[in-house]
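We treat protein structure as text, and this decision shapes the records that our systems exchange. We quote a single record here, exactly as it is kept in our systems:
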Amino acid sequence: MREAEFTQPRPWEDMAPRVGMDTHPIWCNEIGQAQAMHLPSQINSAQPYPLKGLIGFGLNHRMWPGSDVMGDALQKLDFLVDVDLFMTPTAKMCDLVLPACTSFERSEFKMYAERFGIFTEPVIEPLGQSKSDTDIVFELAKRLAPDDDLLSTDYETCIDWMLEPQGIRVRDLRGHQSGCFLENVKAPPYQKYRKNGFPTPSGKMEFTSSRLLAEGYDALPVYTEPKYSPVSTPELAEKYPLVLNTGSRLPMYVHSRTFRLPWIKKLRPESMVDMNPIDGEERGVSNGDTVTVSTSKGSITLIANFTKIVPPGVISIYHNLPGAEVNSIIESDYRDPISGFPGFKSLLCQVVKQMESSN
């Protein structure tokens, strides 16, 4: 397949540095992506170059640590576009919102290592003015790169171009609603390291990471205390003695995409903080009380939900809760120095019962 040639026609060194390349070079080099968590920092600092506009697909500023910082940064851009199914809080910030169609209204190609392929067919036409993400990308490409013969076509033509070395086309998959095995397609090479080596600087299997060592980190995995913890910052833990865990899954939700559905919301109608009864008792908190959860950055108000699933000394808050956005009380730069990912699982906080008003 020619997927790599399609997704990256030019080498990285011929392009501007990716967002986060200056602060998280290991991530950017190893994964071959930008580090989006650095986006608000680059917008605000304009370093190593200014960002003036952004097009997002399903953009959700609440996913960032310091979500308020990310929201403020987005509004500093000269032009902001979001492609989405719904008018989300982030979409409301935008200069332009392009309506995306659902998976019922578009085709999608998938190929698996077992030589199994599927090209789904839409069951209805796109509603209103909505378009698929790929149609929107190709419409933009025709305007931004009018001389590119491939990008001036469409999704199916480009899939055919990527599959051409395998001798198959999208039309070979049509009529197979559940997909099919492609007998003539070559399977991925087995033990390819025997010929090509490993994707390491030495080309060998490395028990110690030469890349980490070159950047000044330990070459072997070692445990390092989080930036904020009872061990690394005992003075801060005196005021904020509980460990805050965020982003844990609840079985009736799919990330933050379904808890606004009325019938699912009834399963947990309030924004809650899960905490061990021992921690509640120490703070004079009863199950169902209104409490304030605070960090050194800020505070939010939730309902206490006692559960022994959460160990003593730890509280857990589901992310993206309306009116109680936990990411807003996490510092925007509270990120792992190597990967750049946020410390969503290791922050210090305190829980205090809200006193009832005497009025």
Observations:
- The chain has a mean pLDDT of 91.
